[in-house]
Amino acid sequence: MTDLTTSTNGDHPADSKTGQSPPRLGLLLGLALGLMVVGAGGVYWWTFAGGEKWFHALLLPSKAAFRGTITLDGAPLRGGQLIAWPDRAGVPQAVGFIGQEGEFLLRTDIDGVFHEEAFVGRHRVSITQYALQRGPSAPQLTSPAKYSSPDSSGLVIVVDRDPAKNSVVLNLLSAKPDADAP
Q1: Comparing C-alpha atoms, which of 97, 125, 98, 93 is closest to residue 109?
Q2: Considering its fold, how many domains does the chain have in total?
Q3: How does residue 54 score in pLDDT terms, banded at 50, 70 and 90?
Q4: Entry pTM
Q5: From CA 167, how far away is CA 159, in angstroms rounded?
Q6: pLDDT band, residue 181 (cuts 50/70/90)
Q7: How many helices (H) and strands (E) does the chain have?
Q8: What distance in Å separates the CA atoms of residue 96 and residue 82, rounded to the nearest whole number?
Q9: How far is CA 158 from CA 63, 113, 154, in A?
Q10: The domain containing residue 102 runs over which residues?
């Protein structure tokens, strides 16, 4: 049996072992229960209700429309794709599908939905075009191989917050044989 004595405030008996009065113990239990509910709600929000996506979206830069034209040796590059690789880590890349006049509009896939915008900032660029294939043969690259990687293309675009500044003409050159080659 617990020995109860009068507390220092004289209102409630206190437990002789802990010195805590029963109302304070109830307050602590209520606070602990409240924190558990808030914590469980936070875990639910983060895991199942899209909290992680919402939080991640806060950290991403803004987006803006970006369009351009691509030529190969002065003529429009007809078909293919441009990929804009952001310099900033954690930012999704944008893709532009090249039309019959060499035109493209960058689109960014965010959670399975394509937005006709790219994230603001500097992007390295790769451009590829493949020949149409019949059957299970490997695709044949028809654009210069130099441009197929952002590391070798040397192409850079900068997406600005102002969409009026977001237009570019990229002039690609075919690989020329070396004059020194036999």
Answers
A1: 93
A2: 2
A3: low
A4: 0.66
A5: 9
A6: very low
A7: 3, 13
A8: 5
A9: 12, 23, 13
A10: 63-172
